[in-house]
Design goal:
This protein is of the alpha/beta class. The protein contains 19 helices and eight strands. A hairpin with a 4-residue loop joins strand 5 and strand 6.
């Protein structure tokens, strides 16, 4: 049932309504807020002017009702329109401001709304200007800044203490990214149901195995498990691969990012040759069988040996790891798991959310921005392609790690 339009009604009016009206209004909390605001304003008017048509008036009849003015009160992220009673001071013939309305106009920061607004690109100064109005006490930039830091610090604590005991993962994406002048390595998991989950990050000088191993062990302490096989999609760094095998042991199966491999090979070639070899490499990786894909890649390598030996050696290095999904006969999942595109989209989101930060003061500031950005990104992530068939990939991983001859 559609709730009625509200003007000057209060909570007493709501209590007198039939049940279906009460239930319909509960579906919209803003209507309840409007009734409560009307109640607060009317209480002050009653204290100043007394009951309507009563002979005995408070303050010797000094104050009288004088209609309504349109007004508004901020409720969280919403600006709620209300009708504000007017009271005239008959001794001075001026309007009497309502103290209760002035107090309602004192904006209280909704910290979650504040955090989201800043993460989506509003600067602290933008937010102050957006949320101030001529009749209200303006938000101070320092107040917004302090509130953002407090809320972001809390989000960082929650992110770093998040548990994964009840989650089962089939994929682990790890990639390093220079963000705001520092190397940040981010780990992203994919659950057996296809959900993408930011797991953790570290600030490190390079993708070395010691620091990455520490990141993986921290995830294990928080309940992350590689039991049953874990498809580790990495960009080709030896430090990442070494750390994955050291911490997760035989459960870690390495899928080298095909995009990174292709770009590494092309980087050795003249620009005029790159488009041709890009097509050949992509065509080989698009093959559905391991045998045919490897044959075509070897043909490209033989051709490159005649033109650019360094490019041929780059293709040969880690070639088998780029074909893991082919070996598992799981190429139907190549769109999601053959490259690190999943985590690259996260990196792109972090760049957007941090672009307005002009001065990075310390590591704590950097960490809280990254944690807040990762949580914000997670809310926008879609499931991986073919998520409803991930049980096939899960079974293939389990079969592979139990086969001593697979590697």
């Amino acid at each position: 049932m559609k709730p009625p339009r509200l003007h000057h009604e209060n909570l007493q009016w709501l209590l007198q309504q039939p049940t279906d009206i009460k239930l319909s209004m509960l579906e919209n909390h803003l209507d309840i807020c409007r009734l409560l605001i009307n109640e607060i304003l009317n209480e002050e008017v009653l204290a100043l002017c007394g009951e309507r048509y009563a002979h005995q008036k408070p303050h010797n009849g000094r104050y009288a009702r004088y209609g309504y003015n349109p007004g508004s009160v901020r409720i969280g992220e919403h600006r709620l329109s209300v009708s504000v009673p007017r009271v005239i001071d008959q001794e001075t013939n001026t309007m009497k401001p309502l103290e209760s309305y002035a107090r309602l106009q004192d904006i209280t920061l909704d910290e979650e709304y504040l955090l989201r607004g800043i993460m989506l690109g509003l600067s602290v100064r933008d937010f102050a200007e957006l949320n101030s109005n001529p009749n209200a006490r303006a938000l101070k930039k320092s107040s917004i800044d302090a509130a953002f830091i407090e809320r972001a610090d809390e989000r960082l604590r929650q992110f770093e203490s998040r548990r994964f005991d009840d989650m089962r993962f089939v994929g682990l994406f790890v990639d390093g990214k220079y963000l705001a002048g520092e190397q940040i390595v981010i780990a992203l998991g994919v659950t057996e149901h296809g959900f993408k989950c930011p797991l953790g990050f570290i600030q490190t000088s390079s993708e070395n195995s010691l620091s990455i191993s520490e990141l993986f062990r921290t995830l294990q302490e928080r309940g992350f498990s590689s039991e049953g096989g874990l498809l580790c999609v990495l960009d080709g760094s030896k430090g990442l691969s070494t750390a994955a095998k050291e911490v997760f042991g035989k459960n870690a199966l390495i899928q080298r990012c095909q995009w990174h491999k292709r770009e590494n090979v092309l980087s050795y070639l003249a620009k005029g040759e790159q488009a041709h070899y890009k097509s050949l490499l992509q065509g080989a990786y698009n093959e559905s069988t391991y045998k045919r894909a490897k044959e075509r890649l070897n043909e490209v390598r033989s051709d490159l040996l005649k033109r650019n030996r360094s490019a041929a050696q780059s293709l040969q290095e880690g070639l088998e790891e780029t074909l893991l999904l082919h070996r598992l006969e799981m190429t139907e999942f190549s769109t999601s798991f053959a490259t690190t595109n999943c985590i690259e989209s996260v990196n792109a989101h972090l760049e957007r959310t941090t672009r307005k930060v002009k001065h990075w003061q310390n590591s704590s500031q950097r960490s809280r921005w990254i944690a807040a950005g990762l949580v914000e990104a997670e809310e926008r992530m879609r499931k991986v392609n073919n998520f409803d068939r991930l049980n096939l990939l899960k079974n293939a991983l389990s079969t592979a790690i139990s086969n001593p001859n697979f590697n």
